[in-house]
Design a protein that fits this description.
Length: about 240
């Protein structure tokens, strides 16, 4: 069970099933320390909230029932290597996760330009985490190039649990090799990854059991997981 989980979706994302308060209650039951909400941005076709939802997240207490609550967003990388959120909204958030998603602002451009868009966003300084970079089923990227640039710019690469469940890996075994390559590059740079459940309901919150089955296979060690180092993670995110 993760003690820190920053990739959580609420009903605001349009395809998730739990509220902020329900997640907090579950986090307490799970004996977690920090949770972070990262609903999809308004540019995603399934999201049911507007930009004001994200700009007003700061009104939610920082600590609820002893759980440190962070407010973020899972933004969509657009074809120009940016994200569809105003600067003032970004400044009101604790962190930004960004990735490539179908039904959003990104248009398929081929592996070279797809990769260039993600790298441009990493270098922009607007994001702290790249979500599921090893996932190749939506848009293909050069995971090696993305990982190299992310490590050099102190942007965390996510090990996304939702794409490691057996039913997903059976359909997309290529994602496992991409993840292994990502881990190898992160290790070379002596950096860390972040593990995110990508929870869409309270029963998925903090559940890292699918990862435990393949950790050795992909070369991931506990020392490489920044979730195990709360102070280091908060410092990287510039959160006090």
């Amino acid at each position: 069970m993760l003690k820190i989980d920053l990739h959580i979706h609420t009903i605001a994302s349009g395809h998730a099933y739990s509220t902020i308060n329900e997640y907090v209650i579950q986090a307490k039951k799970n004996r977690m320390k920090i949770i972070g909400f990262a609903d999809h941005d308004p540019g995603n076709v399934e999201t049911i909230v507007s930009e004001i939802y994200f700009s007003e997240l700061s009104r939610i207490p920082k600590v609820i029932s002893g759980i440190r609550v962070l407010k973020g967003v899972e933004a969509d990388v657009d074809s120009n290597g940016s994200i569809n959120l105003l600067e003032r909204t970004i400044k009101n958030l604790d962190y930004v996760i960004a990735g490539l998603h179908k039904g959003a602002a990104f248009k398929e451009q081929g592996i070279k330009r797809n990769t260039e868009a993600v790298i441009k966003l990493i270098r922009s300084g607007k994001v702290q985490i790249i979500s599921h970079p090893f996932k190749m089923s939506s848009y293909k990227t050069d995971i090696g190039a993305v990982a190299e640039v992310a490590c050099r710019n102190n942007v965390l690469l996510e090990v996304n649990i939702s794409y490691l469940v057996e039913r997903w890996l059976e359909k997309h075994p290529e994602n496992l090799s991409g993840l292994g390559k990502m881990i190898k590059i992160v290790k070379k740079h002596e950096q860390k990854v972040i593990v995110g459940s990508d929870a869409h309901n309270i029963w998925e919150l903090g559940d890292d059991s699918p990862l435990k089955k393949i950790k050795k296979q992909i070369g991931l060690t506990d020392k490489m997981i920044i979730n195990n180092y709360p102070k280091e993670l908060m410092k990287l995110l510039k959160i006090k």
